[in-house]
């Protein structure tokens, strides 16, 4: 009975360890800040060393965690497998390995910050220049407005006189045109009267000529009649 219980417990332990191994199979681990960590052929110090020393920050894939005696089975980037003490592994890259990247990132951020500060200063200078230009323009506008008001006041009367003069000139032109029309009508009447008197005179002359021709003929016709009687 005890043997059966032991076998069942052993089987459960194997199943549990297999489940844990499947859970951590895709996990990545990194060598801690220890300078060199040996990679062994088995989960113990008695196994031969496959790699004399893994440098700090070396990345590896976990195949089986806590495989025995505090070792973890891992796979290297070149595909080789071995065992490393679990205490020398960590979930993130150690600070010593991340430091150069963080320093480079910090330098990039510092450079970007300096560029942004330079751009901001340039924009501030441009804004000050625009404000100064706007102030000068406003002052010039005030001066021109004052000059315009003074000019309007000074030229108000001459402008009124000029408008009145233009009105008088327009009225004079209308009267002149009217006079020309009347003169043209009078000239036409004179021409009509001259033609009428010319016609009257011509008619009178023609009548005199006709009478001068007709009267002698009448006298000649009457004379023989008196001789016959």
UniProtKB/TrEMBL annotation:
Keywords on this record? Answer: Coiled coil, Membrane, Signal, Transmembrane, Transmembrane helix
Coiled-coil residues are 99-192
Look up the record and report any one GO term of the cellular component aspect. membrane
| Domain SH3b: residue ranges | 26-93
Per the record, membrane topology reads: Single-pass membrane protein
The main location is membrane
Pfam families assigned = SH3_3
Q: Which positions make up the signal peptide?
A: 1-21
Answer whether the UniProt record assigns the keyword Signal to this protein.
yes
Is Transmembrane helix given among the entry's keywords? Answer: yes
Where would you find the membrane-spanning parts of this chain? 197-218
What are the subcellular locations of this protein?
A: Membrane
Q: Could you tell me the superkingdom of the organism this chain comes from?
A: Bacteria
Q: Which SMART domains match?
A: SH3b (SM00287)
Q: Which NCBIfam families match?
A: SH3_and_anchor
Per its record, how is this protein called by name?
A: SH3b domain-containing protein
């Amino acid at each position: 009975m005890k043997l059966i219980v032991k076998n069942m417990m052993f089987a459960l332990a194997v199943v549990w360890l297999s489940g844990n191994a499947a859970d951590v199979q895709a996990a990545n681990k990194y060598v801690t800040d220890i300078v060199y960590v040996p990679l062994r052929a088995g989960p113990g110090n008695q196994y031969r060393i496959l790699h004399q020393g893994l440098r700090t920050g070396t990345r590896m894939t976990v195949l089986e965690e806590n495989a025995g005696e505090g070792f973890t089975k891992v796979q290297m980037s070149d595909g080789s497998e071995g065992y490393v003490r679990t205490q020398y592994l960590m979930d993130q890259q150690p600070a010593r390995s991340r430091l150069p990247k963080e320093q480079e990132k910090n330098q990039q951020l510092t450079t970007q910050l300096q560029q942004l500060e330079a751009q901001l200063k340039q924009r501030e200078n441009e804004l000050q220049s625009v404000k100064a230009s706007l102030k000068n323009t406003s002052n010039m506008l005030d001066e021109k407005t004052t000059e315009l008001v003074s000019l309007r006041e000074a030229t108000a009367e001459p402008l009124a006189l000029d408008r009145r003069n233009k009105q008088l000139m327009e009225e004079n032109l209308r009267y002149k045109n009217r006079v020309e029309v009347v003169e043209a009508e009078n000239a036409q009447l004179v021409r009509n009267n001259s033609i009428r008197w010319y016609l009257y005179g011509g008619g009178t002359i023609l009548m005199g000529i006709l009478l001068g021709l007709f009267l002698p003929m009448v006298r000649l016709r009457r004379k023989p009649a008196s001789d016959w009687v």
